[in-house]
Amino acid sequence: MINLNLIKKLNNISAEIRKDIVCQSVKHGGHIASSLSCTDILVALYFGNYFKYDASNPEWPERDRFVLSKGHAEILLYVLLVKTGFIDQSLLDTQYRRNDCILGGHPDKDIPGVEITSGALGHGIGIATGMAHALKMSNSKQRVFSLLGDAECTEGSVWESLMYAAKHNLSNLVCIVDHNKIGSIDFIKNMPSIGILEKKISAFGWEVVSIDGHSHKNILETYKFVTNSTDQRPKMIIANTIKGKGISFMENDPIWHAKQLNEEELIKIAYKELAIEHGK
Cys-Cys crosslink for 174: which of 97, 146, 235, 253, Cβ 3.0 to 4.6 Å? Predict the structure, then answer.
């Protein structure tokens, strides 16, 4: 049974994080729609008690690892790192996509709480697989979580990693596909077909679960299931989401992949829909 108070807490955190994502993106650009689609997935991971970390000691050996393979959800990750205490709000306010650009358009491993430099699609899952294998070989109990985009799954390196992880029974590897049906500036149906992900990835030897990626109850139940599973196969969560979630004109519109929200009338609509005080 998932605690209803926890679900309420996570819903509130997601709402606050979406506000922060939009406010930062209005000022400095960034991949706003891509971050909004996977907000609930990562809020549940970082605040749902299934992911071990110590913000005061980012290199804590007993930590679980998180790899953001879809590095273009950078502003979501940065806001999460502020909320969890890895970095200060002042760093986000002064260094996101400006000045020394410590917080760039894709995350860098030198940022506290960031495991790898990502952005080149198809690489993150391979690195996560290597981490999981190394942890297994050293008999460590830690898990590796990785978030991919669905269009990213057109990369051949993703499928090589899937085969490798299955061959080595990396049950400590949990990957999540943000299945928002859009890649960059087009729908994935117009790209080389990735087929039905659940069936295809299962055929590659993974334990696969498909969920509503905006339901904290569903997400938490799935994290509980995969972390308690005795199945020795690696785990894959297909999270069905909406790109641009929370802003009506942005939802399911490919144009907002990297387009800055800078038109005053649209900003007003977004702020109203997310209950943001104008001028925040």
Answer: 235
Give Cβ neighbours of residue 218 (< 8 Å, ≥ 6 apart). Answer: 211, 212
HEC string for 34-73: HHHHCHHHHHHHHHCCCCCCCCCCCCCCCCCEEEECCHHH
pTM: 0.95
Q: Which two tokens stand for residue 61?
A: 């050996």
Sign, Cα dihedral of 126, 153, 31, 269:
negative
Instruction: Give the helix ranges, DSSP H, for the chain.
Output: 4-28, 32-37, 39-47, 74-84, 89-95, 124-137, 156-167, 197-203, 216-228, 264-273
Which position has the token pair 């008690």? 49
pLDDT tens by residue, 61-74: 999 999 999 999 99
- Domain-wise residue ranges, the chain: 4-273
Handedness of CA 230, 154, 110, 80 (dihedral sign): negative
CATH code linked to domain 4-273: 3.40.50.970
Q: Hey, how many other C-beta atoms are within 10 angstroms of the C-beta on 91?
A: 17
* Cross-strand bridge partners of residue 270: none
Query: Which pLDDT tens digit goes with each residue over 29-53?
Result: 889 999 999 999 999 999 999 999 9
